[in-house]
Amino acid sequence: MPHTPPTLRVLVVDDQPLFRKALAGLVNAQLDMTVVGEADTGMEALERVRTLDPDVVVMDVNMPVASGVDGVRAIRGAGYATKIVMLTISEEDDDLFDAIRAGANGYLLKNIRPEVLFDDLRGVMRGEAPIAPAIAHKLLDALREGPPRPHASTTPGEGETALTRRETEILQLVSAGLSNKEIANQLTITEGTVKNHVHNTLEKLHLSNRTQAAAFTVAQGLSAPRPSNPDRS
Asked: Do 21 and 29 contact (CB within 8 A), yes or no?
């Protein structure tokens, strides 16, 4: 009997009906994905999350009435851990940092190739943090100009707790885009142990999610080299 991949339940949020319907059609064409609902404002996204329980929300940043950032804040404020991937038309979008601070799991440009978007949606469910390369450069430049937190460090200072060698190692692998399962396999430890280390590391560095952790790691010069993938250029 052939193996049937689990279906990824997607909520599409965009105020432009043509783009929203086109994206929903592309998602539904994937064998392992289905669109469970649509919304056209950030606040409507929260209502859809409550009633439909999607696995991932693909949400436009710039929407009238309630923006995508408003939607992220509302969803996180209501206690939902649903994965949220933001879409923007421009790499110069000023909402980048607000969206990440609010709890977005990824930030991509709307000119992304469909197959790359689908791969990123699958990746975010594995714990990855997809960010468009141009946006990542902007984020890292900002972090280099000023560290995320004056007390976020991998070495101890007054009132700080240093990361252990294992936590630093796992932080590097997170920055390389590896999921908890992949990290566990590489380090020959359990996935639960990896999850605990990631949680403790985020707490120590006062970071909210893996996206911030990856950016912080690169900004501090701690990131491990990531295997190149020409299909994602």
From this structure: no
